[in-house]
Amino acid sequence: MKRIASILAATTMMVSPAFAELELEKDELTFGFIKLTDMAPLAVAYEQGFFDDEGLFVTLEAQANWKVLLDGVIDGQLDGAHMLAGQPLAATIGYGTEAHIITPFSMDLNGNGITVSNQIWSEMKPHIPHEDGKPVHPISASTLKPVVEKYQSEGKPFNMGMVFPVSTHNYELRYWLAAGGIQPGYYSPENTTGQIGAEVLLSVTPPPQMPSTMEAGTIYGYSVGEPWNQQAVAKGIGVPVITDYELWKNNPEKVFGLNAEFAEENPNTTLAVVKALIRAAMWLDENDNANREEAVKLLSQPEYVGADYDVIAASMTGTFEYEKGDIRAVPDFNVFFRYNATYPYYSDAVWYLTQMRRWGQVAEAKPDSWYDEVAKSVYKPEIYLEAAKLLIEEGLANESDFPFGSDGYKAPTPAGDIIDGIAYDGRTPNAYLESLPIGLKGDQKVVGAEVQG
């Protein structure tokens, strides 16, 4: 019905000022996504008519996995996609499939968790401080360390899942493990398993398959976006031990990725897409999340996420359930617009690049200038701000909603907002890497099974 309404609107010239202003180079678009709650801006832009307002006829298509999605954007089957923040960066520097992918829009903050099986949770609990009968959060991976050591002494590998080698989930799980004194392993150009020297073996599992893979005993825990942590609670098979909000307050998550060639050839279409996505993000967060229940109903539909309403609502409406019955207020677990969530900060890109270097995906040392150059080649705040200006001119947004004076770098993240108590400043990536106890730094590289240098 919405597509029919769009066509009728266009044929009767009932177009918005935006459509009249922007001469679109291409108006029929196909966007890809993975079935996660943070694809919400795409679904909302479609269902609320924000794409229609821009004269865009959009088709949304769920993808089988992150590689298929990236390949679709590279070969042009998809015009853009909901992406892991690491994907445009990795593709642009040639880690994995090489292509110049850009992002003019960051889709959300937070939204992930780390879950362990009931058995592992029962073994961790004796090491976790409690107050009033409940675990004290945030829970450090140091409480998992004796469990891992026990499994090692018994000759059993300790396996955990993450969704993709350049996913936020991989880097967050590694960050949490390393902050607790556990070595998550390295990559090298010859060995891309990421398990060199690892005490915990991390491997790829598609998000919707995480709970069943853990239930089968193939993995003992995982790092994933919602609703697949809450699904483990609902099924009674696992316990989320930490959210990424507790790991690193208001950390960046997914992005909207486009082939750079597409954006160059279709600048007005790109602006129109970003305008619609900004409006969707605003809708998701406006009036203290007043629209979240409607958003949950939307996402629970099979063509989007397809999980039960209650499972999606458990993390989308201001709470998060850890151990069964342990429901806590986490109002900022999913942030789509506030705190400048949609602005593509260079410093966010630099953090992902530091983690690629930390674990060997960037095999050799790079100067600080390299991090800045790569960030600026991929993250495009200038496109974002141009779209924002158009929305302001149309009376659809306020100037105060956007960081117009920014140089693209956030103020340093204070030590108190990060699980290991180590501050992060995107302007000084090498100094940041030096400050991390576990991980490559300086001229170190992985040769064979050893770190050298």
Concise synopsis of the structure shown:
The chain has 453 residues and is of the alpha+beta class. The chain has 20 helices and 18 strands.
> What is the CATH class designation of the largest domain?
Alpha Beta
Number of helices: 20
**Coarse morphology:** globular
Strand order of the largest sheet: 2-1-3-13-4
How far apart lie the N and C ends?
Answer: 62 Å
Query: How many domains make up the coordinates?
Result: 2
Could you tell me the strand content as a percent range? 15-25%
Structure description:
The protein is of the alpha+beta class. The chain folds into two domains: 2-109 and 252-401, Periplasmic binding protein-like II (D-Maltodextrin-Binding Protein, domain 2); 112-250, 3-Layer(aba) Sandwich (D-Maltodextrin-Binding Protein, domain 2), CATH 3.40.190.10. It contains 20 helices and 18 strands. It has helices spanning 2-11, 17-21, 40-47, 50-53, 66-75, 86-93, 118-124, 145-153, 168-179, 210-215, 228-235, 244-247, 260-265, 267-289, 292-299, 309-316, 346-358, 368-378, 381-393, 429-435, and strands at 28-33, 57-62, 80-83, 101-106, 109-110, 112-117, 130-131, 134-135, 159-162, 201-204, 221-225, 238-243, 255-259, 319-321, 327-329, 334-335, 445-447, 450-452. The strands form seven sheets. It has a five-stranded mixed sheet, with helices on both faces. A three-stranded antiparallel sheet has the order 11-6-12, with helices on both faces. The N and C termini lie far apart (62 Å). Mean pLDDT is 94; it is low at 1-20.
